Amino acid sequence: MLNREYDQVCSVARSLEVLGERWTLLVIRDVFNGKRRFDAIQRDLGVARNVLAARLSRLVAEGILEKRRYSERPTRYEYFLTGKGLDLWPVMVAMMHWGDRYLADAGAPLVIHHKECGGTVDERGCCERCGARLEARDAYAEPGPGSDATAPAVARADTV
Amino acid sequence: MLNREYDQVCSVARSLEVLGERWTLLVIRDVFNGKRRFDAIQRDLGVARNVLAARLSRLVAEGILEKRRYSERPTRYEYFLTGKGLDLWPVMVAMMHWGDRYLADAGAPLVIHHKECGGTVDERGCCERCGARLEARDAYAEPGPGSDATAPAVARADTV
DNA sequence: GGATGTGAGTTGCTTGGCGAAACCGAGCGT
DNA sequence: ACGCTCGGTTTCGCCAAGCAACTCACATCC
User: Which of A66, A102, B2, B95 has its CB surrounded by the most CB atoms within 10 Å?
Assistant: First the structure.
């Protein structure tokens, strides 16, 4: 039989069963950044449409994303993060900072700020100005020094 | 042409170019847990040997792992985390905690402790007893309530 | 009213990454 | 001399992912 799952008694392995497929974490990142619609995500990532459809429905089935209708006729949907999805924020922040540090020669493409005081957020998800321990809802992202000048600004609407 | 890279101006995407292939993060987790040799990792993960060889050499090329000879004749190697690799600790901790919370019905398979005070480590990599902000070197792992009873204990030697 | 556009997918063909298992070579134990 | 271990490489076949085209339901432009 083929060994498709990791099949390990380990929370990293179990997380990767859900999050580890190609594109999955980037889809979640896009939703964190306010991209909620199929076409917006597809254009942003350049992922094949069938693969995006598969990832989205898997994430909905896993309770990480939630589909909400925003238009009755024609029927159109948006994807939102659930509580389970929002709790991936520390994972995203940690990966982002690692990439900023080791792979972003031109500086961080995106900088995360604390909504309340405007301070930047460190790799542990804490505010560097006021020291508060933040959650996804307490923060917003802005283009940083390493951002692509031609890139559209990050959608700023709340992730929830 | 095939779209093999994510090709995005984003630190999460760039990190995933390096870390996002199947097995890569689990190889790193194993090295964090003191498994440093080809056969030990291969047995633990059940990954195909050719794939493991490819992942290890990629990680060495990226400067995340470092190959050290531990036997002259026959020539044998061990893999260690570099500073760049050790800095992935917050990522591993965050993923582990998310998996513990949402995917570990029987409790956490592994619990991370602060070496100095023995307190447990939270999802931000901070000590829950003394509040210290920890690095990979300050912590060790132990089997938790959800561990497989038959599992061998985690190798305790330092990761560096 | 015909052409064009958009949102949200599905279908079908193709390709290359991954899995399985065999093989290899240097040295070690007996 | 024979097998065993460690650290891989080789070979081969399958399936997940890529690409492009198609669908369906509406909306808008001319």
Answer: B95
